[in-house]
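Quick one: structure for this chain?
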Amino acid sequence: MTDYLDARSRCRSQSVNTDGSTTVASPLPTPIANIKSTPLIGTKVPTNTILKSHGRPPWYGEDGQSISPAFVIAIAGGSSSGKTHVARQIVRALGSIPAVVIMSQDSFYKKHTPEEVALAFASRLDVDHPNSIDMDLFASCLSDLKNLQQTKIPVYSFTEHQRLDETQYLYGATIIIAEGILTLHDPEMRKLYDLKIFVQADSDLMLARRIARDTKERGRSVDGILEQYLRYVKPSYDNFVLPSARHADIIVPGKDNAVAIELISTHIQRQLERRSRHFRQKMAASLSLMPSLSRGPPSTDELGVTVLEQTPQLKRAMEKLPYRDVTIETPVGVQSTGKAIDVESLCGVSVLRSGGPLELGLQRVIHDVPIGSLLVQSDSKTGEPLLFHAKLPDCIRERHRAVNTWVFLLDAQIGTGAAGFMAIRVLLDHGVNPAHIIFVTFLVARSGGVAHLRRTFPDVNIVTGAVDDGLREVWLENAHKAWVVEPGMGQIGNPSSPPRSAC
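Got it. Here's what it folds into:
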């Protein structure tokens, strides 16, 4: 536990989601410009956990489509060979973590019958055979994460010898490390991996480590551990695990493997660099990307946004929802006809921190609406958007519900549109219909990224309080480029006053 607390302090904060999944990220109050990425030296991290010290860079191109899937690493080897240690060493060597998931194959043991549980407590259940793993579910979850979608990982209890009813929600991985004794055994699973690693260790060393781990962490007796090892673990290693080493790209020793870890981390960083894409500056000058509008600033109609009248309460965004006629009978017997929102699920998602002021207005109009959040901030060196945190309502997390969910996406302004672009992409990854996204904002820059946003996501509805003329390029004190919306607050206040909005 002490090691894990140390890891938390190095990652600066840890938020635990309602379903038990954990996201390690930078804290909300700290400006991104002041954060320096710190390698997770000596980290002891639980499996099925997303680690972030740097934020997730854009994973899509200018057309809004994914550039490439997540980078998947398989780490196989015998029981207690050092697979988890190698995974942690890779995370440590990467330094600035873009978004890494360490996913354990142990979570995917099949659900046991009462008779099998009794055998497990007597150390007579073979959990090292390939048939003990739900390979179909493992492949499905890994495929979802690789394809940049959300998934739910099962939870297995070694103290109860049973897969629990609860699951862990995971989303947003740039790198996935899948570790387990049989990760290289199944040919269909091998198709999902970009890099295959086998950890090789001496049999005596693996047995000694297994005894130390199972007595300390799982409450097993030495006699039970030895019996299970000789009856099941060793035969499985000889028949299934060791033969799978021939499919590995790299064989790594179970100890004294610093050179191998350095080579692996260098390869991963090179692959991530090849997949990176920077286009915020292009979005800031999106007019040049739209030939039909290149003769001058587009009109409000050409932008395709709905501009609200300057009224005390902004409720026009509600008009974008579908409604149905309803008739009710009052207590005095009078029938009254009206409208009711005709949607299966409805929620709000706020782009932190500027989307916060719009949350109260949404809750006043729809009292019980669930609201999630996305933390998107700029990289201190490049100015590109980084996704640091995603906390979404259940109606979005569950893909079968997300497709019928309507979402109010809340942000203060659309300048370059980079943050809004990323927020929309997150919703689409979860299966939300783009026509069901209503982007509500105070302010839009006429010649900024809204034109690019509308061209890429034409079905998304954009509702704004005001439209300003353009963006002005500036350089901030930390030497990265930004763009200022001018005059800054639309028609509110003195137009000659200095601009106050930067993106």
